[in-house]
Protein: Putative glucose-6-phosphate 1-epimerase
Organism: Massilia yuzhufengensis
Amino acid sequence: MTIATHTNVGQLPAIRIQAPDGAEATVTLYGAHVVSMKGADGQERLFLSAKSALDGRKAIRGGVPVIFPQFAERGAGMRHGFARVSTWRLEDSGLEGDAAWAEFGLALGDLPPSMADAWPHQFMLALRVTVRANELAMALTVRNLGAAPFPFCAALHTYLLVPDVCEARIEGISSDEISIIDKLDAVYPHVAGRALLSTSAGTRVMEQGGFLDAVVWNPGAVDAAALADMEKDEYKRFVCIEPALLDPHMLEPGKVWRGTYRLS
Ligand code: TA6
């Protein structure tokens, strides 16, 4: 059985991995961006905007943007960092037990000069995406290959598909249950690492390790209307629940940081 196949999403080259049980994920090389994950039950788990750019000129709206080395505008660099707008390499793919996986890499030498000059640290990123049954697992590793320490922030800005955001209930992130009334853009530091999202489509379990914090975002009607890459009513169909490392982490030479995420 073929585990990984080359495909295109819009104008973007992508890799589709499929487990023997039918679970599959599609990842564009642009951003190492998981744009779709279907469980073995055939159901899509991730939101992707019908108006998203899919030509490499702008970050993809939906799926799982990889945020590195800056979160949002918390720093002097690009908003949400360069990883989501850089072209990664497919390193390898295969089967591990009954799970299909693919690993993507990005290093300083892969960046165009304008980006590399703005963040000239000898880093190496690896994103491993694994699917089986009704589970998506992602592991992001950051290596410092240089001689000096560097600070970074990171997140997996996951757009979870929901039937209607108004009915979504999120538990495990804050002491209170979170629901979205109008709009929400909230940071939750030092989360426990396991959260539940309940809707009429069922309950999703999210587990994170290494990422100490979480961010929950939905733009609501007014902010969504201002987003050029989102249809008017699409905000109702997702909630972003993002494992995040928001306080800059100082990575010493030769060291590796690892963040994990599992959606089931
Ligand atoms: O993670 C939440 C957030 O930082 C929000 O403030 C919101 O603007 C969102 O990310 C999307 O950012 P983007 O740059 O993709 O439009």
Notes: The pocket of 6-O-phosphono-beta-D-tagatofuranose is lined by residues 59, 72, 79-80, 157, 185, 215, 217, 240, 242 (CB under 6 Å).
